[in-house]
Write a structure and sequence with these properties.
The chain is mostly helical and 651 residues long. 61% of the residues lie in helices and 3% in strands. The protein is built from 30 helices and 10 strands.
Length: 651
């Protein structure tokens, strides 16, 4: 750490730099200039500056000299109290510490010992030291604490610049198309998520340049671990991880955050940031576990982490959605919105998740609240339009999609879904135009290419439809394309058979009045029963319950510990939260992919849970639920009947 004498000289230099009227004090205007100058990468609003100055002048009132403002002793006290980092501020201002005599006649020098780093020659004393003033590093709550950590950050900046220069030269750095989709809405920082959506940089990890970078990075990590104290080693690992994350080196950032978790297992920050890295890397289950640990640590830490709880709930919800656990995600989005009522992203995510499980009215309400708080939220307008379309309000859905596109012209989700809406409305020409706009933004979007072909077919442009299908076939070889091509060939053959036009179209099927169906005998199934049988079979196909062994239900009843509770009518029952039921269903349907499981949950929620949760309490009778699904599971008929009966007895 910098000696006290050197600190006082640096503080005096900073003080004199901003005491514009040389009256021996820093007034509010001069203090504001100081705050802005030492944080060049941070864009403060007038309200933020005013709040900072109010806090300084109130806390250090004893050092305020009337209208002159904060005295030199007061500024020194702020640094002594940790309100700022004198070394960082001094370097950020580009000041030089030359030998000089202080008021006691003692000569003070400031010469930092040379670093043992192999890249010390490249650490040039730049006038502004911009790398030292990143917004995250300057943050009083989550910034760098120890001076030696700054040296690690500076050396790591040089390593990253080297790697970037070599990869740019070889053309190895790639950008993905993530910014054309709806914003995932998760918080990457320990603060409310910003509106900035950056393109993700994809690094080539196969070359020798990257291997050299990883080796040199290991040396920096070892330097951090050799710090004189555990807190300093923790500070170094966290700073390395954050800088790597900032440059989208997520795998390497994760290593540092994991090391920080080992140093301080009950600290919220490393678990939160490890979860962020794991989520970006697509390791949703591990991300969920890290966010859960962060949540437990934050709740155990009292008021210290209250402000962070909404972000943890939001990111945990998004990780759960990545696993297909939408009902569980809804609970965390709701909790985030309760803790922070102005968290528009939490409300947007809640609305999107509710739409995903078929609760359209609730989805519309949440999305409208998000838009009320942030009217230019393109993603919320897009999802609101989808929910309105699902409810049959197509006119307002078109308006909302158009608002999303006006706010973000290259919004692929809005363009694609508006194309689907136009197809449902029979406006095929407009639909093909929307899909063409999707392809202009994302030329390899095979679904848009396929739907463009279908919409052109609906518009009667058969030749153009064939061309579009051929283009789609070049992009992928999925079965959907083969089905579409077969259908197109079938229509073409019918067209060649004659000039019947609409008559040929009508000849494809024969309509028979229901009253003309006759029963052969008493054993013939009635039409309503046949209809129900088809509905049940369709439900089984969507939920895949027919692939779930009914014995698993018995096992769940035998091993599950569900306490007896009393419903609103006073009847004892074994009720369970919907989110907990979702966890049971995930075990029963473990063979489903996350996106398929979401579809199964939507069907179960709409057909079963909405009926069982009569009072909309968020809880259902587990015994009744098992009794309902037992006949739909896989197994002998008698066995399924038996399990249904046992479920009713068990409850």
């Amino acid at each position: 750490m910098t000696p006290r004498g050197s600190r006082s000289v640096k503080v005096k230099r900073i003080f004199l730099q901003f005491d514009a009227n040389h009256d021996g004090g820093l007034n509010r205007e001069e203090m504001a200039a100081l705050v802005v100058a030492v944080n060049p990468r941070v864009k403060f609003s007038d309200e933020q500056i005013s709040a900072i100055l109010d806090e300084v002048f109130r806390t250090y009132g004893e050092f305020i000299d009337g209208e002159k403002g904060l005295t030199l002793d007061g500024l020194l006290r702020t640094y002594d109290d940790g309100a700022g980092d004198v070394d960082r501020d001094f370097d950020a201002l580009g000041l030089e510490l030359k030998p000089l005599d202080d008021k006691n006649g003692i000569t003070v020098a400031s010469e930092e010992a040379a670093s043992s780093s192999s890249i010390v020659d490249e650490r040039i004393m730049e006038p502004q030291r911009e790398q030292r003033t990143a917004a995250w590093a300057a943050s009083p709550n989550h910034g760098i604490v120890f001076d030696d950590t700054w040296k690690l950050v500076d050396d790591l900046e040089i390593l990253i610049k080297r790697l970037t220069a070599r990869h740019m030269k070889d053309g190895k750095i790639k950008n993905d198309n993530s910014d054309v989709f709806s914003d995932p809405g998760w918080s990457s920082e320990l603060a409310p998520a910003s509106d900035v959506s950056e393109k993700r940089v994809i690094w080539d990890e196969s070359g020798s340049d990257y291997a050299t970078f990883v080796k040199e990075l290991g040396v920096l990590r070892s330097r951090a671990d050799r710090a004189s104290s555990r807190p300093e080693a923790f500070d170094g690992q966290m700073a390395i991880g954050r800088l790597l994350y900032e440059h989208h080196l997520f795998k390497e950032a994760l290593v540092s955050f994991k090391r920080a978790c080992e140093l301080f297992p009950f600290d919220v920050k490393p678990h939160f940031r490890s979860g962020n890295c794991l989520y970006v890397l697509g390791r949703y289950s591990e991300a969920k576990a890290e966010f859960q640990q962060a949540l437990e640590a934050a709740e155990a830490g009292g008021n210290q982490w209250t402000y962070l709880l909404p972000q943890i709930h939001v990111n945990l919800g998004i990780a759960l959605e990545g696993e297909g656990m939408v009902l569980s995600a809804c609970e965390h989005y709701r909790e985030a919105a309760i803790l922070c009522p102005t968290h528009f992203r939490a409300l947007k995510l809640l609305g999107s998740a509710l739409f995903g499980i078929g609760e359209y009215k609730a989805a519309v309400k949440a999305l409208e609240e998000a838009i009320y708080m942030k009217n230019d939220y393109a993603d919320a307008h897009c999802d609101l339009a989808s929910a309105l379309h699902a409810m049959g309000d197509d006119d307002n859905a078109v308006k909302e999609f158009q608002k999303a596109i006006d706010l973000k012209p290259g919004h692929v989700d809005a363009l694609y879904n508006l194309g689907g809406l136009y197809m449902d409305m029979g406006r095929y020409q407009r639909a093909s135009e929307m899909y063409a706009r999707v392809l202009a933004v994302w030329p390899t979007h095979w679904r848009a290419q396929l739907n463009k072909a279908v919409s052109l077919l609906g518009a009667g442009e058969t030749d153009e439809a064939k061309k579009a299908l051929k283009e789609a076939f070049k992009m992928t070889n999925r079965v959907e394309l083969h089905d579409a091509i077969s259908h197109l060939k079938h229509l073409q053959k019918r067209k060649l058979k004659g000039n019947a036009g609409n008559d040929a179209e009508a000849a494809a099927f024969v309509a028979v009045e229901p009253s003309k169906f006759k029963t052969v005998g008493d054993k013939t199934s009635q039409r309503p029963e046949l209809s129900l049988a088809l509905d049940i079979r369709s439900f089984q196909r969507i939920t895949r319950l027919n692939r779930c062994d009914v014995e698993l239900l018995k096992k769940e009843m035998r091993e599950g510990d569900v306490p007896v509770s009393y419903s609103g009518s006073g009847i004892p029952e074994k009720s369970i939260r919907k989110a907990s039921l979702e966890e049971i269903l995930r075990k029963l349907l473990h063979f489903l992919k996350p996106e398929t499981f979401v579809g199964a949950i939507r069907a179960i929620n709409q057909k079963i849970l909405s009926v069982l949760d009569e009072y909309e309490s968020g809880r259902v009778d587990l015994g009744i639920f098992f009794a309902v699904i037992a006949p739909l599971c896989d197994g002998p008929l008698d066995k399924r009947k038996q399990v249904a009966y046992e479920s009713l007895s068990w409850r």
